[in-house]
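In the laboratory, one determines a bound structure by crystallizing the protein with its ligand and collecting diffraction data. In a computational setting the workflow is compressed into a single prediction: the sequence and the ligand go in, and a structural description comes out. We illustrate the idea with adenosine monophosphate.
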Amino acid sequence: MNVSSLQILPDAAQGYDQAATVLRDGGLVAFPTETVYGLGADACNDHAVARIYDAKGRPSFNPLIVHFANLDAVKQHVKWTAEADLLSQTFWPGPLTLVLPKKPTSPISRLVTAGLETLAVRMPAHPTARSLFTAFGGPIAAPSANRSGQISPTLASHVIQGMEGRIEAVLDGGPCAVGVESTIVGLTDKPVLLRPGGITEEQLRDCLGRPIAIRKNAEAISAPGQLSSHYAPTAAVRLNATEWNAGEMRLGFGDVACDLNLSPQEDLVEAASHLFDYLHRLDSKGHPVIAVSPIPHHGLGVAINDRLSRAAAPRDTGS
Ligand code: AMP
Ligand code: MG
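The predicted complex, in structure-token form:
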């Protein structure tokens, strides 16, 4: 998607209001946190979230961290635990992300979690980020505001270099102080350090009163979406279907008759925005096979095909 001009918004009330308006309209706004610049979208808007993946040029859907202004808002979306209480009281607002079970009632886009049932949540300390969150009033999904494979931006000028023509605005809050990304702690079972970052292992241990387990598998840290435990439909998935067989649920793309259509107009951002939601919906009908139209292998189509081929791969039955 091509955006004609990138607005540089001031670190002042007027800038926060303009940025919040861009987010409400489904646009993308980069903003400073205490770690790096984040690339924000309305976390409840499927299309806006799809645009994040498009702007970053990622070949796969990595789940995104969702940013909040206050604790009450966080608790509306995740199942809170005693350890989450302890860690958040000590380190929030600050460079710590917690991964918790997502509440089934949360309206956050399925594309944010790339189909996972857990949600990564964070409450940054940076005053500019907090002012933006207050002006917007809802959860903001944001990975680092760099193109895939490039280094994380710590200045508005880095964001502009990488994202010109791809996003609507950047809130210029000066340099980021930490420069490394947030520490990620998983709290779906016993606490586990998923990614080292701004808060150290020692700080976590002191807070929890015991050592914290460390996720050793590097791939699991950088791309949990590629784990075998990741969401796959119960139904078998048949790819590149140009005709349909009796009894299949039909997930179409383009001008085809089907049960659900990812994008009748063949728009890949629209297709990505529906992907996880439509897979879930078709799977819930209980048919043995979901057949999917061919998806062009360029732009966001690469990430869509990556996800679909994982969904179609032979299953680890867990036995
Ligand atoms: P970035 O936003 O670029 O700092 O990257 C976000 C990091 O958070 C990635 O490494 C993701 O894999 C990780 N992440 C986001 N959501 C989850 C989740 N539900 N479970 C585990 N890791 C997550
Ligand atoms: Mg990053």
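The longest strand covers residues 37-42. Keep in mind that any predicted model is a hypothesis to be tested, not a measurement.
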